[in-house]
Every structure is written in C-alpha cells, then in structure tokens.
Amino acid sequence: FGERSLAGLKVLVSAGPTYEDIDPVRFIGNRSSGKMGFAVAEAAAQAGAEVSLVAGPVSLATPPGVAQRIDVRSAAQMHAAVLQAAAQADIYIGAAAVGDYRPQEVATQKLKKHDGSELVLRLAENPDILASLSAQTAHPFLVGFAAETHDVASYAQGKLRHKGLDMIAANQVGGGLGFEAADNALTLYWADAAVALPRAEKSELARQLVAHVAERYRATRG
Ligand code: C5P
C-alpha cells in the first residue's frame, strides 16, 4: 500500500462516546475513550486525506494533520454534524460508540430522590447515523465498527448487510482490548472477504485499517 494512499480524498471520522442527558447533572454514556477513532483520523491524515473529525465528549487533543474538528455531545448532535459533513466526504469511518437510546424527556431541574419508590426512565431510540447515510442515493464509502462481547463475526457481518456498509471493523470487547484500552485487535469484513488484524496498539491498527480502506475504495470507487 502506498504511503499517501488517501491523497486527494476527503475522509470524515466520528469518534468517542455520546452522552444523553437525563437532567442538568446526569447523563447516560458509554465506555468509549475515543482513542481508536482519533488514531484512525491521524492515520488517514498521514495517508494524505483531508480529514474532518466529529468527536463526542472526550478529553483528547486533535491529532496532527486533522483539518477540522467538530465537538458534539449527544447522538442527535453527532447525527446532524455527520450528515452535514458527509455531503463533502468521499469516505466516512464511523468509529464512534453512538448511544442507541436517549431519555424521552430531559428534566430541566435536577431529579430528586423519593425514598423507596422506583424511578422509571423512558428512552427513545436514536437514529442510526450509518444507516441514514447508506439510505441516501449518493453517499460516501461507508466503514462501520462493531464492538461486541460475543458472536463477533456473525454480528459484524449482519451489521455490514443491514446498515448497507462497504466495510466493517469488528472487535471483541474485554480482556484488555477494546474500550478504554491502548491495544485492540480487529477483523475487517467486506462483502466477499475478511482479514484479521492481530492485537497491536491502536495507532498501528489504525494505519492498517486505513490502508485496507484505501485499497477497497480504489477498487470499488476509484
Ligand atoms: O449497531 P451498533 O451500534 O453496534 O453498530 C456500530 C456501528 O454503527 C458503529 O460504526 C457506529 O458508529 C454506528 N452507529 C451509528 N449510529 C447509531 C449507532 C451506531 O452510526 N445510532
């Protein structure tokens, strides 16, 4: 793979968790650190792409070479930011751990405890960013992530098909890998093949992932 395999291309990356507010002091979040997505953004910039990064709430510095960073908090904000930026992108890599649900109502005042009684939070489903993009007639080359605790291969291949993706990067969560960890291990799937990227630092895996994305992009859209 060439050193500047993404030269001339615009790449949009989403990274990090989303926070869904319950009230002014509480939220529903997840354990994504944003490290994998930030590493992917950095690797894409190193490969010559013009990179835009949509980041959920993380405390990570913008990687060198990234042209534009848009910070968001909720899944709805990420959905809006990604759909807007995707209109200019050749490739979208969705590495963010987008919250599947949000509280149906956000309390304007801090919720109070009522001794002994249960509290019921009603949740509404968030729109799927990747599925929204793939439903559009003209859309970027779409790369998804699938973080799974079990049955990784079958869930990943299912998401590849159901979300209409060009490629998916699957990883097993747990055992010092995945969320919050420095290392990861990925298996990439596309329609007719799979390739395993063994355990390595996220920066190294990101470089390998970007090389495969560039190769698949050139083969199908180049
Ligand atoms: O279905 P699941 O959330 O496991 O799929 C993960 C992939 O889908 C990731 O690439 C994630 O960024 C994307 N996703 C999305 N919009 C959502 C939920 C997940 O784009 N609302």
From TrEMBL:
It comes from Rhodanobacter thiooxydans. This is Coenzyme A biosynthesis bifunctional protein CoaBC. Keywords: Decarboxylase, Flavoprotein, FMN, Ligase, Lyase, Magnesium, Metal-binding, Multifunctional enzyme. Transmembrane segments: none annotated. Its EC number is 4.1.1.36, 6.3.2.5. The gene is coaBC. It catalyses: (R)-4'-phosphopantothenate + L-cysteine + CTP = N-[(R)-4-phosphopantothenoyl]-L-cysteine + CMP + diphosphate + H(+); N-[(R)-4-phosphopantothenoyl]-L-cysteine + H(+) = (R)-4'-phosphopantetheine + CO2. Residues 11-222 are annotated as: Phosphopantothenate--cysteine ligase. Catalyzes two sequential steps in the biosynthesis of coenzyme A. In the first step cysteine is conjugated to 4'-phosphopantothenate to form 4-phosphopantothenoylcysteine. In the second step the latter compound is decarboxylated to form 4'-phosphopantotheine. Catalyzes two steps in the biosynthesis of coenzyme A. In the first step cysteine is conjugated to 4'-phosphopantothenate to form 4-phosphopantothenoylcysteine, in the latter compound is decarboxylated to form 4'-phosphopantotheine. One of its GO terms (molecular function) is phosphopantothenoylcysteine decarboxylase activity.
